[in-house]
Design brief:
It contains no helices and ten strands. By secondary structure, it is mainly beta. A hairpin with a 3-residue loop joins strand 7 and strand 8.
């Protein structure tokens, strides 16, 4: 049996156990995007799920290519001069979570890899699921 410590990211730790979301309604969702010149926004870089208990859960990727899940309020966007800017806003249709606003979380599943920590998270709602995963250091979201 793998110990909890072996399944944590060596750089970022284990984060929170997202199972606490089960039974809570998804009231709002926010995200951050990297904007550079006239290029289409990349991202989202981060996603925040704000539940019926007013808890904001941040989902993002770590420098060790792990998937970080922690409680954290959305931060303000910021300018990176010639490297563009990061904008943070509530979402309406920009991520798969927008389809599940006002729905209750039914289940949460995680995938972990020894030595790397969490690499994927799947959140189930009555009308479908959203998969969050790290892919080459980028946050990828998809609906099922």
């Amino acid at each position: 049996m793998e110990s909890k410590r072996e399944s944590e990211c060596p750089l970022h730790g284990g984060g929170v156990r997202p199972a606490y979301l089960v039974g809570r309604r998804l009231e709002q969702a926010g995200a951050s995007w990297h904007l550079y010149g006239s290029d289409a926004p990349s991202g989202p870089l981060d996603v925040w799920l704000i539940d019926s208990e007013a808890v904001a859960t941040r989902i993002t990727t770590g420098s060790g290519w792990c998937l970080i899940v922690k409680t954290s309020d959305p931060f303000a966007g910021y300018d990176m001069a010639e490297s563009g800017r990061v904008e943070v806003a509530l979402i309406s249709g920009e991520t798969p979570f927008a389809e599940h606003l006002s729905e209750t979380v039914l289940a949460v599943g995680e995938e972990r890899v020894s030595g790397s920590g969490r690499i994927a998270l799947e959140i189930a709602f009555d009308s479908g699921r959203v998969r969050c995963e790290t892919w080459s250091g980028d946050l990828r979201l998809s609906s099922k």
